Amino acid sequence: MQTYSITPNQDALTQIALQIWAIAAASDARPLVILPTAGPNHSLRLALESTRSSNTLLLPEVHSLTDWLALAPHAFRLPQPQSNTERVLQTYASIETYPNLRAWFIAEGEGGAWSLANAIVSACDLLSQSVVPQLAWNMDHLDLAQGIEQVQIKLSQAITDAYPRLAQELVSKESAVLLAFWRYLSSERDPVITRHLALASHLQQWKISPETRRPFIWIETIEENDAQTRAHQAFLDHCEAFIPVHRFVMDWTEVGLWPETMEGDASLDEQLHINRAALNKKQITCQNAKRFEDLAWEATHCIEGHLHAGRTQIALVAQDRLLARRTRALLARLGPGLSIEDETGWKLSTTRAAAALHAWLELLRCPPQGPSAITLLEFLKNPFLDLSGLLNVSPDEIALLISELESILLLKQARASWVSFYLAIEAGASPEFDPRLHRLLQSIRERVRVWQNPEMQNLPCAKALAQLHDDLSYFGMRHQFEQDAAGLQLLTMLDKLGLEQGQLPTLRMPLAEWIIFLKTRMEEEVYREQGSDASARVTILPLSATRLRRFDAVVMVGCDERQLPSYGETPLFFSESLSQTLGGTDIARQYRQQARDLSQLFASYTHIDLLWQSEGASGEPLRASPWIVRLQEHHPQLAGRESSRFARSVLGRPMTMAQASRLDGLPMPTRMSPSAYRALRACPYQYYVRSLLGLRKRKDLDDELDASVIGQTLHQILRNFFQELKSTEARDAQIIDDLEFRKAWMITHLMSASEQGFSRLLEGDQRVLGHLRDWQKQIPSFVEWQLERESQGWHFHDAERKLGFEFNFSDELGQFHQIRIEGYADRIDTKPNTSSLAILDYKHQSREKVLERGTQLMDDPQLLLYAKALSTQGPIDQLDWVSLKMNLKKKGADQRSVGITEIPLAMEQLDAQLQNDLGSVWSGGTMQAFAPESTCRYCDARGICRKGMW
Fold first, then answer.
1. HSE-CB of 924 using CA atoms within 13 angstroms
2. Cα distance between residue 664 and residue 648, in whole Å
3. C-alpha–C-alpha distance, residues 882 and 310, integer Å
């Protein structure tokens, strides 16, 4: 075996190409070149093309190792490797068979079993990798069972070496379980074993067919872990018996910038000084910015600068993938003249197609009574949904229907359940009921109901997948997926999943677990966006993918101490030392390889920009990567400078209280509700924004219970109850004469009315049941309060009655105006045979909260406004707030009402206050945002008045 040392700098590809041509000329044969990864294939082929002589017809054959193994001779005779999904499914089925394993490995919650299954499969791969060097290379004598027996001894010895003797008891059970899974999963279809078999197949082909022998060139660009090194070394040693083997290895002596990149000797310091001095010939800039967005713009400007300088092949090294994605979005502004190719790979779950499937899966997980409105609308708004054929309407009409449905649900605040959606549609946002909306909901509900059938709760995976395909076709999503690159990959994933699950026909799992499994597969699947043909190209790639590549310039983002270097996750089952003993990778190896990759990047490219964020999300300072800091001592030009492109002024400006005045010509309202006047008293600015300008925040649909809906329901229940009581009194004398009968009747009927009033809300959200039970506990005490009130001569007269009056006032300019103030009073009581009247206002609050209203009467004079409107029909003797949420554990729970004293004096003050407040607004006076925090907390106009900034 001949070994060649290659210096991994800007001339590395040329060195390799010339040496390959020399080997080809010496052997008079076409060499076979194997690279560890597919990234450098194209660059190496270009280098071979540019260095070949004119009399050479064919380029050497260049493959990545994975692609070459797929071309193994007699591949049809080799075992078909199991996919990772198939092995995870097998492991999951075993975990479900033994539930105590979940508790043992603390794999609780949704997706816990899947995470455990993935960890077990990864651990088994490491075990299989460690046994490969012990297997025979002759396919006719491949003894897998013997190798497995040997690895049991190896693992036991590794545990002894890696853990202190006292800790052996802690890991012995874990190792026994892991070995059991490994024995179960390991077979000739194990991916690690099939890889070995493919290598042995190539070896056997050279052995039996001399005509296929030619120079074999093995290029090593990375330092493999010990298990891989032993396996590949054994393979190359066996190759020497049949074919000429040439091994290319990287020599870091003239490239390494830090001691850890090289195996040191006496002259190490001197060589490092020479290597670092070569950086003076490079054009390297180091920049940082505090804000994420500023840094993304800086990276974009760096790339634009290279493009203007004529550098058309640019690498964007994504050490910070989020920042690279933001930079990519900003580069899209440059148009089709720039092609952007992302080699880092998006997760398929982040694509629009996956989001559309996710929306349907979320609908399947909804409770039997129905989904939330948010979940329903997310599904209906996904761009891959095609309901044209289903409803026999055009796509434009579908968009209008969905928009109308959203408006209806917002208007009626129908947050959840099919019943509440139907009721909202029937009530309608417009006078006419559109039956197509009902058909739309019904079609979705019928599909969801199939999944909620008890037989589908522990269903065969194959049947579930078939039903999912049927749903996608029914809603037109399958056809839309076929027109989209990510959608097509999603369908391919589902088809492949069907084949993999077909190997386990009896596998069943709960619907929730199956949905989690689908989401996990979408999370693991990589979607790579292909660039288009253009005059310039930006390639987004990880640091490791820059090996043996050619670019005109490199922009690297994420060069801070937190992200460079970066490390892989520690295996679940193996400590660092145990993993190293088994031949797996370790942190020291990852650290050394990244230092070499960074050294190679500095040596291979002339134009390099290093960028990082100097301030973390919590405001903590971030320094440059330690590797960059160590270079700054010798190269001042590498000292990171903060970008001045986005410098901000720190000069302070005094802020004044926000204030507004009425716009000239703005039409003034002719009506005002008590709540609008309360807003005027709380904050004139708030009244100006809401009532005069008509600016209101659109209500959102969320999953929280709306307290106002509960209060409105109680108001309706009490109105219906007292009207029923009033009609019963007219036809049944016993309810008037017999106090005990009256009390029992009132409690029974109010309980029944409450059940009926809350029934529709309960169909939509079972959480309302708690509010119903809380209210029913209040009913006996409420009846006691009502009977006590009746003993004082007061009787129910009317409820939800509209009351209003015309108010005349003059503004500061002497002009007279008239406005009607009106609203709905909750309840009016009378005393028979008198003209006395009482107005009651129900409050779904505790009595303590209601008492606070008495101290702020003139800021919320709702009852006084109703009294002024009703005063023309008789004297107002009582104005009471009534608490519907008493603390029943305290004494005096039947003392629910809180009255207003000195009603005539308060009404006189109200007249003067109305005159001043309305006159000031109508005069165009200044309105200032002076409200207390309790008013501002939930104010929609706070972002306009800027309170809190002064």
1. 9
2. 37
3. 79
Is the omega angle on the peptide bond into residue 510 within 30 degrees of 0, that is, cis?
no
Q: How far apart are CA 950 and CA 940, in angstroms?
A: 18
Q: How far is CA 641 from the centre of its chain?
A: 34
CA-based nearest residue to 842, from 742, 714, 691: 714
| Interval 568-591: pLDDT, tens | 766 666 666 666 666 667 778 888
**Helix, strand, or coil here: 536?**
strand
CB 575 within 8 A of CB 629: no
Which structure tokens are listed for 906?
Answer: 């308060």
Q: Coil, helix or strand for 52?
A: coil
Q: Phi, psi at residue 32, to the nearest 5°?
A: -105, 120
Q: Give the model's pLDDT for residue 199.
A: 86
Distance between CA atoms of 754 and 719, rounded to whole angstroms? 11
Averaged confidence pLDDT in the chain? 81
Closest CA to 557 of 346, 331, 328, 319: 319
- Cα-atom radius of gyration of the chain, to the nearest Å? 39
Q: How confident is the model at residue 334 (pLDDT cuts 50, 70, 90)?
A: confident
Residue with the two structure tokens 């004598």: 141
C-beta atoms surrounding 888 within 10 Å:
12
The rounded distance, in Å, linking the Cα atoms of 892 and 498 is 68
Q: Dig out the tokens for 601 from the structure.
A: 């990047």
Residues forming a β-bridge with 346: 527
pLDDT, tens only, 738-787: 889 999 999 999 999 999 888 877 765 677 788 888 898 989 999 999 99
How many angstroms separate the CA atoms of 520 and 493, rounded? 12
Residue carrying structure tokens 């015309």: 806
The DSSP symbol for 79 reads P
